[in-house]
Amino acid sequence: MKAIVATDQAAGMAGVKLVERPEPQAAINDVVVQIHASGFTGDELTWPSTWTDRVGRDRTPSIPGHELAGVVTALGYGTNGLSIGQRVFGLTDWYRDGTLAEYVAVEARNLTPLPGDVDFGVGAALVMPGLTAWQGLFEHGRLHAGQSVLVHGAAGVVGSMASQLAREAGAYVIGTGRAAARQTALDFGAQEFVDLDNDALEDIGEVDLVFDVLGGDIAKRSASVIRAGGTLVTVTGPTEARPSGGRTIDFVVEPDRAQLSELVQRVRVGRLRTNIGEVAALDDAVAAFNRTERIKGKTIIRVHPARGLPKSIQETRKAASA
Description:
- The radius of gyration is 20 Å and the shape is globular.
- Helices cover 23% and strands 27% of the residues.
- Residues 306-322 have low confidence and may be disordered.
- The protein has 2 domains: 2-114 and 275-321, Medium-chain alcohol dehydrogenases, catalytic domain (Quinone Oxidoreductase, Chain A, domain 1); 128-250, NAD(P)-binding Rossmann-like Domain (Rossmann fold).
- The protein is an alpha/beta fold.
- Strand 11 (207-212), helix 4 and strand 12 form a beta-alpha-beta unit.
- It is built from 7 helices and 15 strands.
């Protein structure tokens, strides 16, 4: 199968290339998915899990990408809850080969059925941003109706998802970003916008929750606008920023079938939109990742398998129709 592999940590994107790799096999409780669309997060090549396994052993060349939408083609021993030919989407394990390939082996528990009226590209674009926003707002931030939330990077792929979910939950949403991002942030649910280059963040008053994707000085400044008992939630790693009388939480997103089901149902009825930027074919993925200009929105890789349906699916369908 065709796959994108990362070969050299020091080389970064320059060490990423398209190669032929053996198709994966389904282990116990796994499924193999024929990938139709894959997401990619730009800083994956800085994650230790891209280069080593859980005990620190080198695992290169590794296949990056952890967000997928596709069709189940094989079931491992003991796998239940999914069937061959089923449309699915989800988030793969950080320490296993990922989704920038024609096929991936993934634990069945990490996948959720993808309704037939939701495009594969939308499904892939929903996974990481949607789960990150949901978990940050509701699991860690404990956001509820009537509260206020400051969403940093509100025009970005995670921030735009967080703004929509927070507003739908009945919160008042203040988005931040650079001046050029104002209209996008407002289009994706922010009710106010703060230009971080020209406006004073401290002028917004007090909020119940800060959802941070920027870190650094912005996170530290944000701590001062959180009211007593409020929360700073960040995805940028441990921070010294601490709200007075409140709490700070940094977290790593986790797969969650129930949350993905909630998210995709909101997409189906028009209450939630994905923020898709560039869409590229797998053959063009390396060039897409090496663009020098800043890409707005989520980069989605459309995977066009070189073959038709795998023989396993063809045989299963033939037997079922006999």
